Fold:
Amino acid sequence: MHNAGFLHRDIKPNNFLVGFPNTQNENIIHIIDFGLSRTFIDKAKGFHYPMLPPGKSLTGTARYASINSH
Structure:
């Protein structure tokens, strides 16, 4: 996702799925629920969007947010 220029912004255990056992996908982890995702870099211009300015509220689940977000 990051190589494509996107941030998920809602990382928690419920948003990860593991492939079925005894299949070719058993070692693959899938990320789901991209409702809060956003771009953080404009690849065409090579521009990195600034971090969230002070005073903005937290996006996602506070329980799994970075300590720096609090």
Summary: The chain has no helices and six strands. The CA atoms of residues 17 and 30 lie 5 Å apart. The chain has a mean pLDDT of 81.
